[in-house]
Inverse folding.
């Protein structure tokens, strides 16, 4: 008869890692941050006494100079052959930051993030799907733009995330219920000053 209270040391355990897709929009495309000079996402192994989120924050601080991030847990990747070094289970996370806050990461369009180490291609794909779901209805929920924004800039960000052009009038009607006008106009832009909004 097998004892009910067997010690944990009786069970084989994998190494536990975290890998993080850092997403941002520096221009017209959604980009992901890679470790400079390496075809991989920033990641690390979990240390004793550390939570998964703490491991993500440590990894991004050490490898990318990113501080005060808010990681969201994405998916557990546990294929037995995902790491040639041995049995490694990775809990993937996603972090969204403004383009000027991506630290030392090398920004690559998500559409070009292919052939990455381990199963990081799959992590990027799931992170993009997570991001697009977040941006399906509400205006810039991850605050890539500032507190005040124009509909033109908002549409540009949503088009980058969605990976497709959005019809301006349809987009405006979908976003306006989530916005309120500030009563101010954007200054310093070319052409007719655009109305500024804030999120409700």
């Amino acid at each position: 008869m097998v004892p009910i209270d067997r010690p944990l040391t009786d069970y084989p355990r994998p190494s536990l890692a975290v890998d993080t897709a850092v997403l941002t929009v520096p221009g017209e495309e959604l980009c992901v941050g890679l470790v400079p000079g390496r075809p991989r996402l920033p990641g690390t192994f979990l240390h004793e006494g550390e939570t998964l989120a703490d491991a993500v924050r440590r990894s991004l601080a050490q490898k990318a100079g990113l501080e005060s991030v808010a990681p969201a847990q994405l998916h557990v990747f546990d294929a037995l052959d995902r790491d040639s070094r041995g049995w490694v289970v990775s809990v993937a996370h996603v972090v969204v930051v403004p383009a000027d806050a991506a630290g030392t990461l090398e920004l690559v369009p998500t559409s070009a993030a292919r052939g990455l180490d381990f199963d990081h291609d799959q992590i990027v794909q799931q992170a993009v799907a997570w991001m697009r779901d977040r941006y399906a209805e509400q205006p810039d929920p991850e605050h890539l733009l500032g507190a005040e924004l124009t509909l033109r800039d908002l549409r540009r960000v949503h088009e980058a995330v969605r990976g497709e052009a959005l019809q301006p009038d349809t987009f405006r009607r979908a976003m306006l219920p989530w916005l309120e006008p500030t009563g101010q106009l954007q200054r310093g832009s070319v052409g007719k000053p655009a109305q500024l909004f804030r999120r409700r």
Remarks:
- Residues 8-134 form a domain with the Nucleoside Triphosphate Pyrophosphohydrolase fold (CATH 3.90.79.10).
